[in-house]
Amino acid sequence: MRNLFTVLLFSALATGALAQDEVDYLSFATEDEANSTEIFSKASPAVAYVTNKALRRNLFSLNVQEIPRGSGTGFIWDASGLVVTNFHVIAGAQRLTVTLQDREEYDAQVIGIAPEKDLAVLRMIEPPDDLVTLPLGDSSELTVGRKVLAIGNPFGLDTTLTTGVVSALGREIKSPSNRKIRGVIQTDAAINPGNSGGPLLNSLGQLVGVNTAIFSPSGGSAGIGFAIPVNTVKDVVPQLISFGRIQRPIMGLELASDRWIRRYRIEGLPVVRVFPGLPADEAGLRGAYRNSRGDITLGDIITQINDTLIRRHDDYLSVLEASDVGEVVTVTTRRGDEEMRFEVTLTESQ
């Protein structure tokens, strides 16, 4: 009986081995493999290698030399040669180049920056005619556990694909201007130095985020990466193309710095000056002034706008960015020991 069982077992293993040998690996792929391969094939031509170069004078020969200052990733925004990347990738650049998948290199210039969102838009000076763009997704449709793919140039290794899932949503990270970027996507797709500015894609190959930062004590991927959601990108990039910066409505105020507020432990945002003829002035807000003894006295200290508590510049600017020109906001202030409220109609930036 034991010999019969052994014969049957070997027969089954041999049959399985023959069946496995008959499978052609080149034509076989799991459903997930096929999806990743297809997305990479379609999306990688739209991904660019962005090099930030600076001019330095040689201490011995005094000749001016061009040296790499940093590098990152970007992606083609439209067929006219516009490229989106992170602000920190191109900060301080004296010359920028964009290298496409075919290794052709093109000079580029900055046409818009948003340090508060860590985004920048470049224009290729003489772009080719056959540029590929990425379809835009909707980051509000993401849920934890959904598959995402990152394409970039980690450590200078061009056109690298990593895959993972959405690990969390609604994160906050600090931008190069120390403003908070809200609603950030967290992913475990491997993101390393050089991936910055590259696309994060969903399983349909749609852009759902721009890879921007990693959390890592060692500087390498630790399974926690962050991406700016595409809905933020869709709002910011058109403004950078048209105006070179984010357009937000204004009240017409000069405010005390966060450093000064921390130093004197003030709860709220003191108004330093109110510009004549602008909405805050028309509503009746008051800036700092000198009293009869020549001492500087605080005027209004903004503590709340609508339902949002105001404790620093980031709170104030975030409210304005979420508002429209012509919108009326309720500004609550503290003036001495008195709480006051003003209805301020926002106007466009001057």
What's the number of helices? 7
Mean pLDDT: 88
Strand content: 35-45%
Radius of gyration: 27 Å
**Biggest sheet character:** 6 strands, antiparallel, barrel
Quick one: overall form? elongated
Total beta strand runs? 20
User: Residue share in helices?
Assistant: 10-25%
Structural class: alpha+beta
List the SSEs and their pairings:
Layout lengths: L1 H21 L8 H13 L3 E11 L6 E15 L3 E4 L1 H4 L4 E5 L5 E10 L4 E6 L22 E6 L7 E15 L5 E8 L11 E3 L5 E8 L10 E5 H14 L9 E3 L2 H7 L4 E6 L4 H5 L5 E2 L5 E2 L2 E6 L2 E2 L3 H9 L6 E8 L2 E8 L5
Give a brief description.
The protein is α+β, with helices and mostly antiparallel strands.
Describe the structure.
This protein has 350 residues and is α+β, with helices and mostly antiparallel strands. It is 21% helix and 38% strand. It contains seven helices and 20 strands. The protein has helices at residues 2-22, 31-43, 87-90, 230-243, 258-264, 279-283, 313-321, and strands at residues 47-57, 64-78, 82-85, 95-99, 105-114, 119-124, 147-152, 160-174, 180-187, 199-201, 207-214, 225-229, 253-255, 269-274, 289-290, 296-297, 300-305, 308-309, 328-335, 338-345. The strands form four sheets. A six-stranded antiparallel barrel has the order 1-2-3-6-5-4. It has a six-stranded antiparallel beta barrel with strand order 7-8-9-12-11-10. Strands 13, 14, 17, 18, 19 and 20 form a six-stranded antiparallel beta sheet that branches. Strand 10 (199-201) and strand 11 form a beta hairpin. The protein is elongated and about 95 Å long. The protein starts with a helix and ends in a 5-residue tail after the last strand.
